[in-house]
Amino acid sequence: MPVYYLAVDIGASSGRHILGSVENGKIILEEIYRFKNGMIKKDGCLCWDYETLFGHIKNGMKRCKEMGKIPTSMGIDTWGVDFVLLDENDRVLGEMMGYRDNRTEGMDDEVYRIIPEKELYARTGIEKMMFNTIFQLMAVKKDQPEYMENAKAMLFVPDFFHFLLTGKKVNEYTESSTSQLIYAESRMWDEELIEKLGFNREMFQTIAMPGESLGRLKAGIVKEVGYDLEVVLPCTHDTGSAILAVPAADDDYIYISSGTWSLLGIECDAPDCSEVSRANHFTNEGGYDMRICYHRNIMGLWMIQSVRHNLADQHSFAEICRQAEECSDFPSRVDVTDNCFMTPENMIVEIQNYCRRTGQQIPGTLGEIAACIYKSLAECYARTIDGIEKSTGRTYSRIHIVGGGGNADYLNQLTARATGKEVHAGPTEGTAIGNIAAQMIHNGEFKGKEEIRGIIHESFDVKVYYT
Q: Burial level of 84, CB count in 10 A (0-12/13-18/19+)?
């Protein structure tokens, strides 16, 4: 019987359970459970329904039992920055707030009164994004000081679910790095920064690395799902897991982890916390083997997803790509990093208003709107890559796209043309593969990252786009 590994990959709009195994020297994936996700409005705030999400996690685990495919281990990955605070009885204080909530408005000024923006970047290497955990915690300190005072644990979303499964509290490194509270050089909590900001030091947990074991399931969970297994930390930040799945045998590439967000960059041994790096909007997030994922956060396919929702999800993504290609001569462009596209009431209207404000032709049809988005994304990718090459002093020959965005043929071709580089798209299940890869390495199935990346290259289709 194959040895099975379970990846629970939860994104901002959906989650899925994927079983991985090795057969005839190749990694085989099987999706066994899928569920919807999304922020909900509660008392005027955007938050996550963590009780429903945990119910889905357990339901997917039960599905393994029903299929007779019991995994030897499992791990959970999610988006970054969001967290819960637990009191002395492990009860959640308040809600699991969502990163698109507006509670962080003005919190940058509160933080910068204590530590200047440039100094903060020099310590953490993390790009300023208004949803970063540092700003969310400042909002808690200002608006719910009793939560900050009474918190005995701060657990990021995947940390929290791992705690519910095992009873063990840790802060996994790759997820913690998105907080803007990790000292980039040491990969540990910046104790001095936390003290300066007046955050409750007691609530920060020990930093744990991808590949570490959290032990076995709690007895109550074993009884509920019908079996026991080991819980092994993947890169719990989905970007870190996706980058681990890049099927490359060298370092002559730039990655794009493409989904709701596009994370475009390179892997490094050391962070770049220079002022030039900050001015160019690069971030130094944690990766597998304590490497640095040096990239820029770009809005990504969130804009296309939102346009689709505005049209009641009548069109498939393939159809949207086709209509965009038919309107390939449409001239207008938008800045896909502009905050106006973060949480608009209507993405179509927001894009039209942007074009109106900037004196450009206003898109009317779905094809024109999609062409505007896709071409704006490709051109943003090209500018970002140019910045990386100038700062590193080297030229990269190809781009590896991992994640669901690798299915967007039209965008991939535009990216090849805009950058003048080969684009290697796939595997599209990059995050789940990276999650499973960390578990397989922990279990001794493979020796390390280099070996498993070679297996990933042999196991999954990669489509190449030429300039």
A: buried
**CA-to-CA distance for 429 and 446, rounded, in angstroms?**
19
Given the residues 238, 272, 313, 329, the one annotated as active site: 238
Encoded amino acid at 139, one letter? A
Residue type, 330: F
Band the pLDDT of 180: cuts 50, 70, 90.
Answer: very high
Burial per residue of 435-465, b for 16 or more beta-carbon CB atoms within 10 angstroms, e otherwise: bbbbbbbbbebbeebeebbebbbebbebeeb
What is the C-alpha separation between 169 and 226, in angstroms, rounded?
23
Query: Cα-flanking dihedrals φ and ψ of residue 424, to 5°?
Result: -105, 105
How far apart (Å, rounded) are the C-alpha atoms in residues 303 and 82? 21
List, in sequence order, every residue forming a beta bridge with 231; answer none if it has no partner: 74
Query: Would you give the end-to-end CA distance of the chain in angstroms?
Result: 45
Is 238 catalytic? The answer is yes
Share of the chain above pLDDT 70, in %: 100
Helix, strand, coil percent values for the chain (each to nearest 5): 45, 25, 35
CA-wise closest residue to 32 among 2, 56, 12: 56
User: Is residue 1 over pLDDT 90?
Assistant: no
Q: List all residues 6 or more positions away from 318 whose beta carbon is below 8 Å from its beta carbon.
A: 407
| CA atoms of 94 and 162, how far apart (whole Å) | 20
Q: Per residue in 344-395, pLDDT tens? A: 999 999 999 999 999 999 999 999 999 999 999 999 999 999 999 988 899 9
Indicate the pLDDT class of residue 314, thresholds 50, 70 and 90. very high
Q: pTM of the entire structure? A: 0.94
Q: Determine phi and psi for 159, rounding to 5 degrees.
A: -60, -40
Q: Kindly list the distances between the CA atom of residue 17 and the CA atoms of 36, 75, 149, 359, 397, in Å, as whole numbers in the listed order.
A: 12, 10, 36, 46, 34
Separation between Cα atoms, residue 180 and residue 272, nearest integer Å:
14
Helix/strand/coil for 247:
coil
Taking the C-alpha atoms of residue 328 and residue 465, their distance in angstroms, rounded to an integer, is 18
Domains along the chain with CATH numbers:
4-232 (3.30.420.40), 246-300+377-465 (3.30.420.40)
